[in-house]
Design goal:
alpha+beta; 6 helices; Saf4/Yju2; 4 strands; four-stranded antiparallel beta sheet; 174 residues; disordered N terminus
Length: 174
């Protein structure tokens, strides 16, 4: 969303913190949106012109990790719990290791020689620029303002067909 104008000013004070108010115009509909800080809840509050959109997502679909809750964090910091579950964690690591090694090999193969890849890419771009320059020179020689693409078999057959149709119409008019 492109912000056309944005004005910020202090609205008041709450809990010893400044409450800031921001107003901006939406680029799509030109309505004014007013947003205000909420230090008590540590978030922003939409005052007017918009609605809060909350999207829930499945952790697996988003391909992210679930953050542990407070109780789980305290359990994970317990040394005895970690010692008891260390074997399970090592088994999980061994299961995931072949996949990680395979991904690393693919990544190394793709990015093995950056210089050679860059050199080939630059050479291809230079050739494309030469072809475009040649096409533009041919177009200028003919007197066209645009470049012509290379001809094909289909183009030549269509041109012959058009010539035959023009000759037939000219003979009919006589």
């Amino acid at each position: 969303m492109k912000v056309l104008t944005m004005i910020d000013h202090k609205a008041s004070k709450s809990y010893g913190e400044n409450i800031w108010s921001f107003s901006m115009k939406s680029a799509c509909c030109k309505h004014e949106i007013v947003i205000q800080t909420d230090p008590k809840n540590c978030e922003y509050v939409i005052i007017s012109g918009a609605q809060r959109k909350t999207e829930d997502f499945d952790i697996e679909d988003a391909e992210t990790f679930a953050l542990p809750a407070d109780e789980e964090r305290s359990i994970l910091s317990d040394p005895f719990y970690r010692l008891e579950h260390q074997e399970e964690d090592l088994a999980k690591k061994k299961e995931a290791e072949p996949v990680l090694v395979r991904l690393q090999r693919v990544s190394d193969a793709r990015h093995s020689d950056d210089y050679a890849l860059n050199k080939a890419l630059r050479a291809r771009l230079r050739n494309q620029k030469k072809i475009v320059a040649d096409e533009e020179a041919v177009a200028r020689k003919i007197g066209l303002g645009i470049r012509l693409l290379p001809g094909s078999e289909e183009d030549s057959s269509m041109a012959k067909h058009v010539k035959v149709l023009i000759q037939i119409r000219q003979e009919q008019e006589k």
